[in-house]
Write a structure and sequence with these properties.
3% of the residues lie in helices and 43% in strands. It has 1 helix and 28 strands. The strands form 8 sheets. Strands 1-28-27-26 form a 4-stranded antiparallel beta sheet, with no helix packed on it. It has a 4-stranded antiparallel beta sheet with strand order 2-3-4-5, with no helix packed on it. Strand 2 and strand 3 form a beta hairpin. The protein is globular and about 55 Å long. The relative contact order is 0.16.
């Protein structure tokens, strides 16, 4: 297959991405762990000749094992079939700064835009079914005052009953990092969090996921931890990590987490203990500019989207 070159679509996005790079050296200290028995076999996607997409922000799979790539180009979504064959680009002009991606059990596609402060739900054909937030504005979500604002929504997680959770707060030095809960129809239920270092507070909630027990794992990036809550926002516990935890995928046996600018892909057990790691900063296979998001495919392959190097690396077992 022809190697595809990814391109950042505007100088503005390049500058914004560069500005995220941490200046505190503690965020660049890697997690110490045994070597993960996976190796990167590709850092590009099989796009047709002459087709390019923007920097990939996240990957997700639907019920047909099709992979969708959320990217920061003019067409926000790319679809590939179960054999990795390119199907289509869509979502023209949909997002300004793509960030989070989830596909629900009905194959609806959920995305977040940290620049326009929007959460969107699309059907499998790309038709918008639901939009939450106020485009281009950020602030508080306050039903009593009629305020429907996000503050840089980063990620999503969907519960078994259809309730969904939105993480927000992408900028560690400003804004209101928290989690917001909605019912399946998009009706606001509650919120919790706020800025701080104590339990239940955040610096930037970069991603969230729900485990097999229904608990919410929130990636509290610059606090170098993952915090766990029940679905009513009750704080359960936290796990601390070296580096800069950025995103995680929770399976039946393992959890996989990426470590941002530290350039690591890590395997955790279901309690959050680090078992193994691979990767480092760089531009080659198995190296990262920013390991931004992680997901695991139907054949056990691990995909890591890198917003800085504009690569989408595929890892397979050695």
């Amino acid at each position: 297959m022809k190697k595809t070159t990814f391109v950042l679509c505007t100088l503005l996005l390049s500058i914004a991405a560069f500005a995220q790079r941490p200046t505190d050296p503690k965020f660049l200290i890697p997690e110490k762990a045994p070597l993960l028995d996976y190796v990167s076999v590709s850092d590009s996607l099989p796009l047709p000749a002459g087709t390019t997409i923007g920097a990939p922000a996240a990957n997700a799979f639907d019920s047909k094992n099709h992979m969708f790539v959320l990217n920061r180009g003019p067409q926000a979504l790319a679809e590939f079939d179960a054999n990795g064959k390119f199907i289509r680009l869509f979502g023209d002009g949909l997002l300004k700064r793509a960030h989070g991606l989830v596909i629900d059990k009905a194959d609806n596609i959920w995305v977040t835009d940290v620049a326009e402060n929007l959460v969107m739900k699309l059907n499998p054909h790309g038709k918008i079914l639901l939009t939450l937030g106020t485009k281009g504005e950020k602030g508080d979500w306050n039903e009593a005052n009629g305020f429907h604002f996000f503050d840089e929504p980063t990620g999503l997680a969907i519960g078994r009953n259809g309730d969904f959770f939105v993480s927000q707060g992408h900028s560690p030095g400003s804004g209101d990092p928290r989690i917001l809960k909605f019912d399946a129809n998009g009706k606001f239920i509650k919120t919790w969090g706020g800025r701080g270092t104590e339990p239940g507070k955040f610096t930037a909630v970069h991603a969230i996921a729900i485990d097999g027990k229904g608990l919410i794992w929130a990636v509290d990036r610059e606090n170098q931890r993952i915090q766990i809550f029940d679905q009513d926002g009750k704080y359960i516990r936290e796990m601390k990590y070296a580096g800069l935890p950025t995103s995680l995928w929770i399976g039946d046996q393992y959890i996989y987490m990426v470590n941002g600018f530290t350039g690591q892909l890590l395997r955790l057990d279901l309690n959050g203990k680090v078992l193994a790691a691979v990767g480092k900063p760089g531009t080659g296979l198995g190296e990262f500019g920013e390991a931004h998001s992680v997901t695991v495919g139907p054949k056990g392959e691990i995909w890591v989207a890198d917003t800085i190097s504009s690569t989408d690396q595929k890892f397979v077992k050695k």
